Amino acid sequence: MSSRFSRVSRVSRFAGGFIVVGVVGALSALTGCSSSEAASKENVDSYESELRLASPKYLGQIANGETKSTYYNDPPRYRAYGFSAKGGDEITVDVKSVYGDAMGWITTSAFDVVAANDDASSATLDSKVVYKVPAGTASRAYRAVFRDYDLLDATFTVKLTIKSQAAVTCSYDGDTYSPGASFPSTDGCNTCSCGTTGSVACTKKACLACDPDNEWWRNYIGTPTTCQTIRYVCASNQRSFQNTCGCGCEALSH
User: Fold this and answer.
1) Whole-Å CA distances, 230 to 172, 174, 225
2) For residue 25, what is the DSSP state?
3) Cβ neighbours of residue 5 under 8 Å, at least 6 residues apart?
4) What is the pLDDT of residue 43?
5) Which of 167, 171, 170, 148 lies closest to 158 in space, CA to CA?
6) What Å distances lie between residue 166 and 89, 136, 209, CA to CA?
């Protein structure tokens, strides 16, 4: 037995506080509708092939925090708004209707489904689709796709909410770097890089012997022992360094 609500039931739920009249409840009990059947209707990702072939009607862009209203009738079977999101963003698309039964999808611009939802809870026929873009993904176009489950005429509102993750940076030797940046290691001979998660990785090649007496571009301030505890600030045309002979400031131009 289908666990969907008919158009009459849709109206009844609002007139009677979402209480379906006794005859409907009795019929459900007699036919033995199971909770697994109710859960199966949430498998809206099974519509992916149909959705892609149907070429949803594009209704234009929707901005973060914006709510748009549109009248739905079939055909065309699907409608879609466009938006962009990047790695780390959490996207929420709410599709609601007073009398309609919302189904919602978040897809790529090619209508490949990345998230879907039919009923946000057992107490509503509205849809809430949530998707978190994988970290490191470049900004790309997405679609908020929706339709009425029974393909009946209805007015739908679609709201887009995007929560952006704070920008990731790396901190190393008092400086801040963006993911992908490379910079010298404090040992003076290796190279470090900033990862997408804010971690710093450095090469581990053996460093050549240092020679403070002949390194005119370096000003040694501490020994290998004292370098662990001292604090110093380099001039604007210098950078900090550390090697097996000690630490200090060296010319940027070298």
Assistant:
1) 17, 14, 9
2) H
3) 13, 20, 101, 125
4) 59
5) 148
6) 9, 13, 42
Q: Which two tokens stand for residue 26?
A: 């009795």
Instruction: Determine the average pLDDT of the residues in 187-199.
Output: 86
Cα 244–Cα 247–Cα 250 angle in degrees, nearest 5? 115
Is there a contact between 79 and 153 (Cβ–Cβ < 8 Å)?
Answer: no
- For β-strands 57-61 and 79-85, DSSP reports them as parallel
Class of 44-163 per CATH?
A: mainly beta
Q: Is the pLDDT of residue 45 over 90?
A: no
Distance CA(165)–CA(88), nearest Å, equals 5
**In the chain, where are the structural domains located?**
1-41, 44-163, 167-208, 210-254
Q: Encoding tokens for residue 158?
A: 């679609």
The predicted model scores a pTM of 0.56
Mean pLDDT in residue range 171-194: 87
Torsion sign over Cα 25, 30, 35, 38: negative
pLDDT exceeding 90 applies to what percent of the chain?
Answer: 54
Checking if the pLDDT of 130 tops 50, the result is yes
Dihedral angle sign, alpha carbons of residues 152, 154, 159, 160: positive
Question: What pLDDT score does 3 carry?
Answer: 44
Cα gap 73→150, rounded to integer Å: 10
